[in-house]
Amino acid sequence: MSVTNIPEKVRIRLWGKAAGCCQYSGCNEPLWLDSITKYEFNAAYIAHIIADSSDGPRGHPTLSRQLEADITNLMLMCDKHHRLIDREDVAGHSVERLRAMKSVHEQRIEIVSGIADDKRSHILLYGANIGVHNSPLCFADAARAMIPERYPADIHPLSLGLKNSSFEDRSGTYWTIEVEHLKNLVNQQVRTRLKTDEITHLSVFAFAPQPLLILLGSLLSDIPAVEVYQRHREPTCWKWETEPDNFKYIVTEPKEVAGPPALIFSLSANIEEKRIIKVVGKDVSIWRVTIPSPHNDFLKSRQQAQSFRQQMRLLMDLIKLRHGEKEVIHVFPAMPVCLAVEFGRILMPKADLSLRIYDENKVLGGFVHAIDINPDKTS
Protein backbone atom coordinates (compact mmCIF):
# COMPACT_ATOMS: atom_id res chain seq x y z
CA MET A 1 0.00 0.00 0.00
CA SER A 2 1.33 3.46 -0.87
CA VAL A 3 1.56 5.99 1.95
CA THR A 4 -0.83 8.18 0.01
CA ASN A 5 -3.42 5.42 0.25
CA ILE A 6 -3.51 5.39 4.03
CA PRO A 7 -7.11 6.29 4.98
CA GLU A 8 -7.64 9.95 5.81
CA LYS A 9 -9.12 9.17 9.22
CA VAL A 10 -5.92 7.31 10.14
CA ARG A 11 -3.80 10.25 9.00
CA ILE A 12 -5.86 12.69 11.05
CA ARG A 13 -5.54 10.53 14.15
CA LEU A 14 -1.77 10.24 13.66
CA TRP A 15 -1.42 14.01 13.28
CA GLY A 16 -3.41 14.48 16.48
CA LYS A 17 -1.38 11.94 18.47
CA ALA A 18 1.86 13.55 17.28
CA ALA A 19 0.57 17.13 17.73
CA GLY A 20 1.88 17.87 14.25
CA CYS A 21 5.51 17.33 15.29
CA CYS A 22 8.23 14.90 14.29
CA GLN A 23 8.11 11.84 16.53
CA TYR A 24 11.82 11.04 16.24
CA SER A 25 13.35 11.19 19.71
CA GLY A 26 14.70 14.66 20.51
CA CYS A 27 13.43 16.29 17.31
CA ASN A 28 9.86 17.51 17.89
CA GLU A 29 10.08 19.78 14.81
CA PRO A 30 6.70 21.35 13.88
CA LEU A 31 5.68 19.83 10.53
CA TRP A 32 3.17 22.50 9.57
CA LEU A 33 5.47 25.54 9.80
CA ASP A 34 8.77 26.66 8.31
CA SER A 35 10.78 27.92 11.29
CA ILE A 36 12.63 30.52 9.17
CA THR A 37 9.96 32.06 6.94
CA LYS A 38 7.01 31.16 9.23
CA TYR A 39 5.17 30.01 6.11
CA GLU A 40 2.60 27.31 6.92
CA PHE A 41 2.42 24.11 4.86
CA ASN A 42 2.47 20.34 5.32
CA ALA A 43 6.07 19.15 5.62
CA ALA A 44 5.27 15.80 7.24
CA TYR A 45 6.12 12.29 6.14
CA ILE A 46 4.29 9.21 7.37
CA ALA A 47 6.84 6.52 8.12
CA HIS A 48 6.26 2.82 8.66
CA ILE A 49 7.87 1.13 11.64
CA ILE A 50 7.45 -2.25 9.96
CA ALA A 51 7.64 -1.58 6.22
CA ASP A 52 4.45 -1.96 4.18
CA SER A 53 6.28 -4.51 2.02
CA SER A 54 8.29 -7.52 3.15
CA ASP A 55 11.42 -6.33 1.33
CA GLY A 56 11.28 -2.77 2.76
CA PRO A 57 13.06 -1.37 5.84
CA ARG A 58 12.22 -3.65 8.80
CA GLY A 59 9.90 -5.63 6.51
CA HIS A 60 8.16 -8.81 7.66
CA PRO A 61 6.65 -11.68 5.64
CA THR A 62 3.20 -11.38 7.22
CA LEU A 63 3.12 -8.28 9.46
CA SER A 64 4.00 -5.89 6.64
CA ARG A 65 0.64 -6.47 4.96
CA GLN A 66 -1.31 -6.70 8.25
CA LEU A 67 0.02 -3.41 9.68
CA GLU A 68 0.41 -1.33 6.51
CA ALA A 69 -2.39 1.10 7.55
CA ASP A 70 -2.42 0.42 11.30
CA ILE A 71 -1.85 3.60 13.32
CA THR A 72 0.28 1.67 15.84
CA ASN A 73 2.76 1.03 13.02
CA LEU A 74 2.90 4.62 11.73
CA MET A 75 5.02 7.61 12.77
CA LEU A 76 4.89 11.26 11.77
CA MET A 77 8.37 12.43 10.77
CA CYS A 78 10.34 15.26 9.23
CA ASP A 79 12.19 14.65 5.97
CA LYS A 80 15.66 14.16 7.49
CA HIS A 81 14.58 11.60 10.06
CA HIS A 82 12.37 9.77 7.57
CA ARG A 83 15.43 9.43 5.33
CA LEU A 84 17.59 8.42 8.30
CA ILE A 85 15.46 5.47 9.42
CA ASP A 86 14.55 4.19 5.92
CA ARG A 87 17.77 4.82 3.97
CA GLU A 88 20.84 5.97 5.84
CA ASP A 89 20.72 3.91 9.05
CA VAL A 90 18.13 1.18 8.79
CA ALA A 91 20.17 -1.20 10.96
CA GLY A 92 20.39 1.37 13.75
CA HIS A 93 16.62 1.81 13.90
CA SER A 94 15.01 -1.41 14.99
CA VAL A 95 11.26 -1.94 15.33
CA GLU A 96 11.63 -1.84 19.11
CA ARG A 97 13.53 1.46 19.07
CA LEU A 98 11.01 3.19 16.82
CA ARG A 99 8.05 1.90 18.82
CA ALA A 100 9.65 3.30 21.98
CA MET A 101 10.10 6.72 20.31
CA LYS A 102 6.47 6.75 19.18
CA SER A 103 5.20 5.74 22.62
CA VAL A 104 7.22 8.35 24.54
CA HIS A 105 6.21 11.15 22.15
CA GLU A 106 2.50 10.32 22.22
CA GLN A 107 2.44 9.91 25.99
CA ARG A 108 4.02 13.35 26.39
CA ILE A 109 1.46 14.94 24.08
CA GLU A 110 -1.37 13.23 25.95
CA ILE A 111 -0.12 14.52 29.31
CA VAL A 112 0.37 18.11 28.14
CA SER A 113 -2.89 18.36 26.20
CA GLY A 114 -4.82 16.88 29.10
CA ILE A 115 -3.78 19.57 31.58
CA ALA A 116 -6.74 21.65 32.75
CA ASP A 117 -6.90 25.39 32.13
CA ASP A 118 -6.56 26.14 35.84
CA LYS A 119 -3.03 24.70 35.70
CA ARG A 120 -1.78 27.50 33.45
CA SER A 121 1.13 29.42 34.97
CA HIS A 122 3.26 32.30 33.71
CA ILE A 123 6.99 31.64 34.02
CA LEU A 124 8.96 34.42 35.73
CA LEU A 125 12.74 34.38 35.28
CA TYR A 126 14.86 36.68 37.43
CA GLY A 127 18.64 36.71 37.18
CA ALA A 128 21.26 39.15 38.38
CA ASN A 129 25.03 38.86 38.48
CA ILE A 130 26.57 37.06 41.47
CA GLY A 131 30.22 38.03 41.54
CA VAL A 132 31.40 37.21 38.00
CA HIS A 133 28.80 34.48 37.42
CA ASN A 134 25.79 35.12 35.21
CA SER A 135 22.34 33.61 35.67
CA PRO A 136 21.71 29.97 34.51
CA LEU A 137 18.05 30.48 33.59
CA CYS A 138 16.13 29.35 30.52
CA PHE A 139 12.49 28.83 29.55
CA ALA A 140 12.92 25.17 28.56
CA ASP A 141 14.37 24.13 31.93
CA ALA A 142 11.59 25.98 33.74
CA ALA A 143 8.85 24.35 31.63
CA ARG A 144 10.27 20.88 32.29
CA ALA A 145 10.22 21.51 36.03
CA MET A 146 6.54 22.56 36.03
CA ILE A 147 5.00 19.72 34.02
CA PRO A 148 2.74 17.85 34.76
CA GLU A 149 1.46 19.82 37.78
CA ARG A 150 1.36 23.02 35.71
CA TYR A 151 2.22 24.15 32.22
CA PRO A 152 3.41 27.45 30.70
CA ALA A 153 0.63 29.91 29.96
CA ASP A 154 2.82 31.73 27.44
CA ILE A 155 5.86 30.76 25.36
CA HIS A 156 7.43 34.08 26.37
CA PRO A 157 8.57 34.22 30.02
CA LEU A 158 8.51 37.31 32.19
CA SER A 159 12.23 38.20 32.25
CA LEU A 160 13.12 40.65 35.00
CA GLY A 161 16.92 40.65 35.21
CA LEU A 162 19.32 43.13 33.67
CA LYS A 163 20.61 41.55 30.45
CA ASN A 164 24.37 41.64 29.87
CA SER A 165 24.89 43.75 32.98
CA SER A 166 28.47 44.93 33.46
CA PHE A 167 27.92 45.64 37.16
CA GLU A 168 29.14 43.20 39.80
CA ASP A 169 27.87 42.96 43.35
CA ARG A 170 31.05 44.56 44.72
CA SER A 171 30.29 47.75 42.82
CA GLY A 172 29.01 50.74 44.78
CA THR A 173 26.23 51.37 42.27
CA TYR A 174 25.23 47.74 41.83
CA TRP A 175 22.55 47.56 44.52
CA THR A 176 20.96 50.90 43.64
CA ILE A 177 20.67 50.02 39.96
CA GLU A 178 19.43 46.46 40.50
CA VAL A 179 16.84 47.49 43.12
CA GLU A 180 15.32 50.22 40.96
CA HIS A 181 15.38 48.05 37.86
CA LEU A 182 13.65 45.18 39.66
CA LYS A 183 10.97 47.42 41.17
CA ASN A 184 10.23 48.97 37.79
CA LEU A 185 9.96 45.66 35.96
CA VAL A 186 7.73 44.06 38.60
CA ASN A 187 5.38 47.04 38.30
CA GLN A 188 5.41 47.02 34.50
CA GLN A 189 5.34 43.32 33.70
CA VAL A 190 3.71 41.66 36.69
CA ARG A 191 1.47 43.88 38.81
CA THR A 192 -0.48 45.41 35.94
CA ARG A 193 -1.23 41.97 34.50
CA LEU A 194 -2.20 40.60 37.91
CA LYS A 195 -4.72 43.40 38.35
CA THR A 196 -6.43 42.54 35.06
CA ASP A 197 -6.37 38.78 35.82
CA GLU A 198 -4.25 38.20 32.73
CA ILE A 199 -1.87 36.43 35.11
CA THR A 200 -3.52 34.10 37.61
CA HIS A 201 -0.47 32.07 38.69
CA LEU A 202 3.29 32.60 38.62
CA SER A 203 6.08 30.02 38.55
CA VAL A 204 9.25 31.76 39.73
CA PHE A 205 12.76 30.69 38.75
CA ALA A 206 15.45 32.97 40.15
CA PHE A 207 19.22 33.08 40.52
CA ALA A 208 20.63 36.25 42.04
CA PRO A 209 22.28 37.64 45.20
CA GLN A 210 20.14 36.85 48.20
CA PRO A 211 19.20 40.43 49.16
CA LEU A 212 17.67 40.88 45.69
CA LEU A 213 15.83 37.57 45.96
CA ILE A 214 14.29 38.68 49.26
CA LEU A 215 13.32 41.97 47.63
CA LEU A 216 11.73 40.11 44.70
CA GLY A 217 9.65 38.07 47.12
CA SER A 218 8.50 41.18 48.99
CA LEU A 219 7.47 42.82 45.70
CA LEU A 220 5.44 39.76 44.68
CA SER A 221 4.00 39.29 48.20
CA ASP A 222 1.91 36.29 49.23
CA ILE A 223 -1.33 37.64 47.76
CA PRO A 224 -1.09 36.24 44.20
CA ALA A 225 -0.78 32.49 43.61
CA VAL A 226 2.96 31.83 43.26
CA GLU A 227 5.24 28.81 43.32
CA VAL A 228 8.96 29.39 43.72
CA TYR A 229 11.31 26.70 42.42
CA GLN A 230 14.79 25.69 43.57
CA ARG A 231 17.67 24.74 41.30
CA HIS A 232 19.20 21.48 42.52
CA ARG A 233 22.86 20.63 42.10
CA GLU A 234 22.45 16.85 42.13
CA PRO A 235 20.80 16.15 39.76
CA THR A 236 21.07 19.54 38.05
CA CYS A 237 17.46 20.59 37.47
CA TRP A 238 14.59 22.65 38.94
CA LYS A 239 12.04 19.84 39.35
CA TRP A 240 10.77 19.15 42.86
CA GLU A 241 11.54 15.78 44.45
CA THR A 242 10.03 13.94 47.42
CA GLU A 243 10.42 15.35 50.93
CA PRO A 244 13.43 14.01 52.89
CA ASP A 245 12.65 11.91 55.97
CA ASN A 246 12.58 13.59 59.39
CA PHE A 247 13.37 17.03 58.01
CA LYS A 248 13.00 20.06 60.29
CA TYR A 249 14.09 23.67 60.66
CA ILE A 250 15.70 24.73 63.94
CA VAL A 251 15.00 28.21 65.36
CA THR A 252 17.15 29.43 68.25
CA GLU A 253 16.35 32.57 70.24
CA PRO A 254 18.74 34.94 72.03
CA LYS A 255 19.18 34.25 75.72
CA GLU A 256 18.14 37.82 76.41
CA VAL A 257 17.08 40.87 74.41
CA ALA A 258 20.08 43.14 74.88
CA GLY A 259 20.18 45.08 71.63
CA PRO A 260 18.88 45.21 68.04
CA PRO A 261 17.77 41.90 66.53
CA ALA A 262 19.94 40.08 64.00
CA LEU A 263 18.36 37.21 62.06
CA ILE A 264 20.83 34.65 60.75
CA PHE A 265 19.82 32.10 58.12
CA SER A 266 22.42 29.34 58.47
CA LEU A 267 20.86 26.98 55.94
CA SER A 268 23.21 26.72 52.96
CA ALA A 269 26.25 27.25 55.20
CA ASN A 270 27.14 28.07 58.78
CA ILE A 271 27.49 31.73 59.79
CA GLU A 272 29.54 32.42 62.92
CA GLU A 273 28.17 34.93 65.42
CA LYS A 274 31.47 36.83 65.60
CA ARG A 275 30.98 37.86 61.96
CA ILE A 276 27.62 39.40 62.88
CA ILE A 277 29.04 41.19 65.92
CA LYS A 278 31.75 42.65 63.68
CA VAL A 279 29.07 44.34 61.57
CA VAL A 280 26.27 45.20 64.03
CA GLY A 281 28.20 45.49 67.30
CA LYS A 282 28.51 43.37 70.43
CA ASP A 283 25.16 44.56 71.80
CA VAL A 284 23.07 42.49 69.41
CA SER A 285 20.35 39.90 69.98
CA ILE A 286 20.94 37.00 67.60
CA TRP A 287 18.12 34.86 66.25
CA ARG A 288 19.13 31.88 64.10
CA VAL A 289 17.30 29.66 61.61
CA THR A 290 19.25 26.55 60.68
CA ILE A 291 19.09 22.80 60.01
CA PRO A 292 21.09 19.95 61.61
CA SER A 293 23.71 19.94 58.82
CA PRO A 294 23.67 23.12 56.70
CA HIS A 295 24.63 22.57 53.05
CA ASN A 296 23.77 24.09 49.69
CA ASP A 297 21.62 21.30 48.25
CA PHE A 298 19.29 20.33 51.09
CA LEU A 299 16.08 21.85 49.68
CA LYS A 300 14.42 19.13 47.60
CA SER A 301 10.65 19.39 48.06
CA ARG A 302 7.84 21.94 47.96
CA GLN A 303 6.83 20.69 51.44
CA GLN A 304 10.13 22.02 52.82
CA ALA A 305 9.38 25.43 51.30
CA GLN A 306 5.85 25.41 52.74
CA SER A 307 7.13 24.53 56.22
CA PHE A 308 9.67 27.38 55.98
CA ARG A 309 6.96 29.93 55.15
CA GLN A 310 4.81 28.80 58.06
CA GLN A 311 7.63 28.99 60.59
CA MET A 312 8.92 32.35 59.36
CA ARG A 313 5.50 34.00 59.75
CA LEU A 314 5.48 32.94 63.41
CA LEU A 315 9.10 34.00 63.88
CA MET A 316 8.57 37.52 62.50
CA ASP A 317 5.68 38.03 64.92
CA LEU A 318 7.80 36.77 67.83
CA ILE A 319 10.74 39.07 67.02
CA LYS A 320 8.42 42.07 66.87
CA LEU A 321 6.85 41.07 70.18
CA ARG A 322 10.25 40.84 71.87
CA HIS A 323 11.88 43.94 70.34
CA GLY A 324 9.00 46.37 69.80
CA GLU A 325 7.52 48.15 66.80
CA LYS A 326 10.40 50.49 65.94
CA GLU A 327 13.36 48.10 65.68
CA VAL A 328 15.14 47.10 62.48
CA ILE A 329 16.00 43.44 61.90
CA HIS A 330 19.53 42.93 60.57
CA VAL A 331 19.30 39.95 58.19
CA PHE A 332 22.31 37.77 57.29
CA PRO A 333 21.27 35.14 54.73
CA ALA A 334 23.01 31.93 53.71
CA MET A 335 20.01 30.18 52.22
CA PRO A 336 18.68 28.55 49.03
CA VAL A 337 17.34 30.95 46.39
CA CYS A 338 13.81 29.57 46.76
CA LEU A 339 13.72 30.27 50.50
CA ALA A 340 15.16 33.76 50.03
CA VAL A 341 12.24 34.60 47.73
CA GLU A 342 9.77 32.89 50.06
CA PHE A 343 11.07 34.87 53.03
CA GLY A 344 10.40 38.07 51.12
CA ARG A 345 6.91 36.89 50.20
CA ILE A 346 5.78 36.40 53.81
CA LEU A 347 6.72 39.96 54.79
CA MET A 348 3.79 42.23 55.62
CA PRO A 349 4.71 45.91 55.00
CA LYS A 350 2.27 47.36 57.51
CA ALA A 351 2.83 44.76 60.24
CA ASP A 352 6.41 43.45 60.12
CA LEU A 353 9.55 45.23 61.22
CA SER A 354 11.90 46.86 58.71
CA LEU A 355 14.77 44.77 57.37
CA ARG A 356 18.39 45.73 56.79
CA ILE A 357 19.77 42.98 54.59
CA TYR A 358 23.45 42.15 54.25
CA ASP A 359 25.34 40.37 51.52
CA GLU A 360 28.46 38.29 51.98
CA ASN A 361 31.17 39.48 49.63
CA LYS A 362 34.62 37.93 50.00
CA VAL A 363 36.17 40.62 47.82
CA LEU A 364 34.98 43.26 50.29
CA GLY A 365 35.98 41.24 53.34
CA GLY A 366 32.72 39.83 54.65
CA PHE A 367 29.12 40.96 55.12
CA VAL A 368 28.21 44.39 53.76
CA HIS A 369 24.95 46.32 53.89
CA ALA A 370 23.08 45.76 50.62
CA ILE A 371 19.46 46.91 50.75
CA ASP A 372 16.67 47.94 53.14
CA ILE A 373 13.08 46.69 52.94
CA ASN A 374 10.21 48.70 54.42
CA PRO A 375 12.51 51.49 55.75
CA ASP A 376 9.57 53.86 56.39
CA LYS A 377 8.55 51.77 59.40
CA THR A 378 11.39 53.24 61.44
CA SER A 379 10.40 56.86 60.92
Quick synopsis:
By secondary structure, this protein is α/β, with parallel strands linked by helices. It has ten helices and 13 strands. The chain has three domains: 111 residues, no CATH class; 111 residues; 129 residues, Leucine Aminopeptidase, subunit E, domain 1 (3-Layer(aba) Sandwich), CATH 3.40.220.
Description:
It contains 10 helices and 13 strands. The chain is of the alpha/beta class and 379 residues long. It has 3 domains: 111 residues, no CATH class; 111 residues; 129 residues, Leucine Aminopeptidase, subunit E, domain 1, CATH 3.40.220. A 6-stranded mixed beta sheet has the order 8-10-9-11-12-13, sandwiched between helices. Strand 12 and strand 13 form a beta hairpin. Helix 6 packs parallel to helix 7 and helix 9 packs across helix 10.
